[in-house]
């Protein structure tokens, strides 16, 4: 069993759930998690959290139902220069950020352009996780991106919603295998992420955990149970 889930979405993400943060924490507690990251979609996602929502998160309780909470955001990468959809002043008030490409804000581009977008967004010290870079619509130079992630203290995720049977990013297994190969090569840690929209899939890493174990990926590079180390990486500026 893994003890943390750092990529989840509440009702504030604007789609997929009506669950509040309290609902999410209650579910995490029932499932035995010790650390939960709330990372609602940034303002460029239709109907998602506004700047004022993310500002208010900094005043939210840090523990609910005996689960420690970190408050972050899943940023939308907007262009190849790594521009994102929340002002730096607000990003610096949050605990951490996940940076992801979503089709509504960044149309599928060349491998070179997609890679450049990820390389540039990692220059932002608040970006601590790259989200679902396994997406088959967005070819990426994984060797270059993972190497840069290691140099910038950024984690890669194995996204349950990408590998699960209900996933919608295509058959991501070969991309995920390449990500793991590069993470092993450069000793870059990963996190297993549910990408749960709502409480149902919080802490559910059924497909992601099976995939990394089948790949014989070193358990020491999976940070979900190494909570002090995980929190230290997320808090580094």
TrEMBL record:
Which Gene3D superfamilies does the UniProt record give? Metal-dependent hydrolases
The cross-references to InterPro entries, in alphabetical order and at most eight, read: PHP_dom, PHP_phosphatase, Pol/His_phosphatase_N, Pol/histidinol_Pase-like
Top-rank lineage group of the source organism? Bacteria
**Alphabetized Pfam families for the sequence:** PHP
> Where in the numbering of this chain does the Polymerase/histidinol phosphatase N-terminal domain appear?
4-79
Report the SUPFAM superfamilies cross-referenced here: PHP domain-like
Q: What protein is this chain from? A: Phosphatase
Q: Which organism is it from?
A: Blautia acetigignens
